């Protein structure tokens, strides 16, 4: 089974936000050395927890520091933008890292409603998502729009022998159906929904998949949150940061990731119990335990690749987590 990485440039309390971006670049370099298949970065806006607002720029920086690992967005929130401009950006990325670029597309805002309006005042932009995907698919593969289309004869430059590979991302049946319709790879945001709906989405994608010029059979993965440490005790200690963040998020409180010892302070007994309950299905432990949990999940869902996201307050703990998982596989 192959492992890939999703990094969200998480902001840690007490550390500068811009440091999170540099940590992502550093992590990508290490993940290539450790043999990971892909390295994806996300797009979020006006969130104090995540600094990754411009994946296309971050990917360019990573492309200049790597040579083998595939690089991609997870994802570009396409309704915010012109499909043509996104095609140009990713054609430039493909020129920097030929044949290594994944263009993951999402329909969700990646922000609150007010911020979304600032990115694109068109309230109905998300309704044109399928049309945008079709246009983007043509432009990134060096095609022009058909006669009669307003963009007929317009090309996304630079044209090259290789092109970005489109992925559809989602956490519901909508993305699964769209990916199947266009014959594109599909990634389910398992960590976002705690796995709710994953079986139905994958079944729908596989059963409705229509072979395309880009893909002759279904290619699916899921993005999971996982964490490994040298000991099980250390892993659960580091897990406290993300557990507290999830607790706060569910109550509408969004902030940077707290250090593990701070994460268990100023919470009620009931809230602490909720944080402890999050351990039940968490993919956390020492290297062997975490790898066994990942393999079991992949086998259950009939997947040969998983995309792993690891949140820790200390960047060194995150690096160690990915190093241990790589060794275990």
- Supply the helix-strand structural class: alpha/beta
- Would you report the number of β strands? 9
β-strand percent reads 15-25%
CATH topology heading: TIM Barrel
Q: CATH superfamily name?
A: Luciferase-like domain
Averaged pLDDT, please? 96
Helicity range? 40-55%
Strands in their spatial order, largest beta sheet = 1-2-3-4-5-6-7-9
Low-confidence residue ranges? none
End-to-end C-alpha gap: 8 Å
* H/E series: EHEHEHEHHEHEHHEHHHEHEH
The tally of domains stands at 1
Q: What gross morphology would you assign?
A: globular
Largest sheet descriptor: 8 strands, parallel, barrel
Instruction: Output the number of helix runs.
Output: 13
Quick recap of the structure?
With 329 residues, the protein is of the alpha/beta class.
What does this entry look like structurally?
The chain is an alpha/beta fold and 329 residues long. The chain has one domain (2-228, 284-328): TIM Barrel (Alpha-Beta Barrel), CATH 3.20.20.30. 44% of the residues lie in helices and 16% in strands. The protein contains 13 helices and 9 strands. The chain has helices spanning 17-34, 55-63, 83-96, 113-119, 129-140, 173-182, 190-193, 198-208, 232-250, 260-263, 269-277, 287-300, 315-328, and strands spanning 2-7, 38-41, 70-77, 101-106, 165-170, 186-188, 220-229, 283-286, 305-309. An 8-stranded parallel beta barrel has the order 1-2-3-4-5-6-7-9, surrounded by 9 helices. Helix 1 (17-34) links the parallel strand 1 and strand 2. Helix 6 packs parallel to helix 8, helix 9 crosses helix 11 and helix 12 (287-300) packs across helix 13. It is globular, with a radius of gyration of 20 Å. The termini are close together.
């Amino acid at each position: 089974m192959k492992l890939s990485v999703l990094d969200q440039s998480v902001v840690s309390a007490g550390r500068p936000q811009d440091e999170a971006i540099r940590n992502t670049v550093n992590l990508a370099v290490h993940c290539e050395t450790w043999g990971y298949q892909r390295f994806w970065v996300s797009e979020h806006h006006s969130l104090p927890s995540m600094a990754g607002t411009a994946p296309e720029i971050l990917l360019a920086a990573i492309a200049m520091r790597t040579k083998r690992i595939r690089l991609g967005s997870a994802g570009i929130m396409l309704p915010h933008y012109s499909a043509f401009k996104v095609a140009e950006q990713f054609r430039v990325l493909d020129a920097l890292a030929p044949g290594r670029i994944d263009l993951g597309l999402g329909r969700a805002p990646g922000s609150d409603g007010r911020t979304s309006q600032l990115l694109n005042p068109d309230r109905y932009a998300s309704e044109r998502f399928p049309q945008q995907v079709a246009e983007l698919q043509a432009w990134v593969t060096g095609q022009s729009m058909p006669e009669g289309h307003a963009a007929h004869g317009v090309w996304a430059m630079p044209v090259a022998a290789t092109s970005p590979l489109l992925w559809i991302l989602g956490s519901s049946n909508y993305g699964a159906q769209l990916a199947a319709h266009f014959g594109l790879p599909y990634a389910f945001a398992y960590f976002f929904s705690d796995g709710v709906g994953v079986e139905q989405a994958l079944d729908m994608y596989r059963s409705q998949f229509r072979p395309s010029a880009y893909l002759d059979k279904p290619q699916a993965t899921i993005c999971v949150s996982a964490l490994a440490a040298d000991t099980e005790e250390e892993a659960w200690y580091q897990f406290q940061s993300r557990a507290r963040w999830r607790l706060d998020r569910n109550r509408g409180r969004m902030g940077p990731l707290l250090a593990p010892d701070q994460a268990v302070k100023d919470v009620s007994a009931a809230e602490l119990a909720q944080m402890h309950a999050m351990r039940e299905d968490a993919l956390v432990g020492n290297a062997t335990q975490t790898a066994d949990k990942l393999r079991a999940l992949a086998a259950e869902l009939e997947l040969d690749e998983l995309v792993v996201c690891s949140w820790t307050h200390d960047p060194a703990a995150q690096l160690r987590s990915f190093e241990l998982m790589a060794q275990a596989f």
